[in-house]
Amino acid sequence: MSAPRRSFTRDDPETRRAALIAAVLDLMAEDGPQAATVRAIADAAGLSQGMIRHYFSTKEELINAAYQAHMEAQLTATRASLPACGTAMARLARIITVSLTPPVSDPRTLSLWAAFIHMIRRDPAMRATHERNYLRFRDLLESLIVAACADSGRPVSKVEARRLAIACNAVLDGLWLEGGALPEAFAPRELEQIGMTSVSAILGLTLECEAT
Amino acid sequence: MSAPRRSFTRDDPETRRAALIAAVLDLMAEDGPQAATVRAIADAAGLSQGMIRHYFSTKEELINAAYQAHMEAQLTATRASLPACGTAMARLARIITVSLTPPVSDPRTLSLWAAFIHMIRRDPAMRATHERNYLRFRDLLESLIVAACADSGRPVSKVEARRLAIACNAVLDGLWLEGGALPEAFAPRELEQIGMTSVSAILGLTLECEAT
DNA sequence: CCGCTAATCATACGCTTGTATAGTTTCTCG
DNA sequence: CGAGAAACTATACAAGCGTATGATTAGCGG
């Protein structure tokens, strides 16, 4: 009648921590923050409930670690996808594509973002992480914008660059949001193309999607 | 030492329901969905805990009612702010302003949106409400875009209108999101002006902010 | 091969949750 | 004006929560 005792299998601490973090992200993305209970987390990670407090001093600490890991993975993936060489315009087009296709643009990612935002507001450490990553991305975008405009013989001032970066970032964020909220309301690469033409219009350039 | 018994004060059922709904929205916006417990809700509404089940058959029903009320208020406010007469371009400019200033663009509104999105995914009724309101707003925006473009001698096709509406909506959503997430990162009417110039660029028009 | 440490498991504890129920007050109407 | 219904309060209850605590197993140096 009673469930058999879970078998003992030792593993690398790093693996265990990663499993717990992955479980947190899965649960939060799927069913919201209140679904990530210690029991559900341990279950999803295939561990017993005590492990979470063995590797993290509290549940909140695990949640914070999961948030950090998620943000880092997101930014790393974006950075890695940018070709080191290539024209500034190609790099700009590429970051638009990456930002508007999975795994960055995703119902799952949007869901996670929504789940974390309240914790971001309350916890100063999480808030700092959030702000830093957000501005880091916008600065990256701004530098690409400045380079692309300069290359096409239309240099922009510093204040203008800021405004353009905010505007282009808004386009990306807005399309990311809509694609994540209503994924089946758009054709496969529709958001990517709309993003490309919109940014082109805002900057006065002509960006094009790469062929797949 | 025990708290004194709460005094009896009868009131209009509609007022009571409204008080409970307002309490739900306040708590959710301030501290996230898990802060809206029955005890906290009743307390915030100045009522005893039993009232929530007296006016709503379950807590979930109250949450749904709160979501409906919030969405309706939002859309009604937007609609009401549009001048019935005036040029199409003026109306378009007006909807941009309204969408990017309080109470529509607000940390509170963003917070509420994030709190509700997981319920939207699970509950088909809430999902239907969400989808309907989203598309209704986008259709309104699209009709204004079509009219404004036509007025300035640049008629757009049906498919083009859809794409432009999605793009402009994305600009508004993105700026709304950024303003809500980092309110102090922008100057007072900065987002409004960026929205105006961005939409202008996308549509090939020249919209201008009204003076306050 | 034994015993020790650390990893892992199971379970208990106090608290909060949503819901159900019993008790109290106010209002209405015959 | 006095019963009876309806609004309202308070409290009880089972379930689930995060945390704490022992019991159990695996690896490793003597």
Mind explaining what this structure looks like?
The structure is a homodimer of 212-residue chains. Chain A is mainly alpha-helical. The N and C termini of chain A lie far apart (55 Å). Chain A is elongated, with a radius of gyration of 20 Å. Chain A has two domains: 49 residues, Arc Repressor Mutant, subunit A; 137 residues, Tetracycline Repressor, domain 2 (Orthogonal Bundle). In chain A, 71% of the residues lie in helices and 0% in strands. The structure holds a DNA duplex (30 and 30 nucleotides). Chains A, B: Keywords: DNA-binding, Repressor, Transcription, Transcription regulation. Chains A, B: This is TetR family transcriptional regulator.
- Helix segment count of chain A? 9
Measured on Cα atoms, how large is the radius of gyration of chain A? 20 Å
Indicate how many domains the architecture of chain A comprises. Answer: 2
Mean pLDDT of chain A: 92
Q: Please bin the fraction of helical residues of chain A.
A: over 70%
Largest sheet of chain A: none
What quaternary form is this?
A: homodimer
What portion of the residues of chain A fall into strands of 2 or more residues?
under 5%
Q: Provide the structure class of chain A.
A: mainly alpha
Q: Give the C-level CATH assignment of the largest domain in chain A.
A: Mainly Alpha
Distance between the termini of chain A: 55 Å
- CATH second-level architecture of the largest domain in chain A: Orthogonal Bundle
CATH superfamily of the largest domain in chain A: Tetracycline Repressor, domain 2
DSSP strand tally of chain A: 0
The interface involving the most residues is between: A-B, 42 and 42 residues
CATH topology-level name of the largest domain in chain A: Tetracycline Repressor, domain 2
Q: What characteristic shape of chain A results from the CA principal axes?
A: elongated
Order of helices and strands of chain A: HHHHHHHHH
Poorly predicted parts of chain A: none
InterPro entries (chains A, B): BetI_C, DNA-bd_HTH_TetR-type_CS, Homeodomain-like_sf, HTH-type_TetR-like_transc_reg, HTH_TetR, Tet_transcr_reg_TetR-rel_C_sf
Keywords (chains A, B): DNA-binding, Repressor, Transcription, Transcription regulation
Organism (chains A, B): Albidovulum litorale
Protein name (chains A, B): TetR family transcriptional regulator
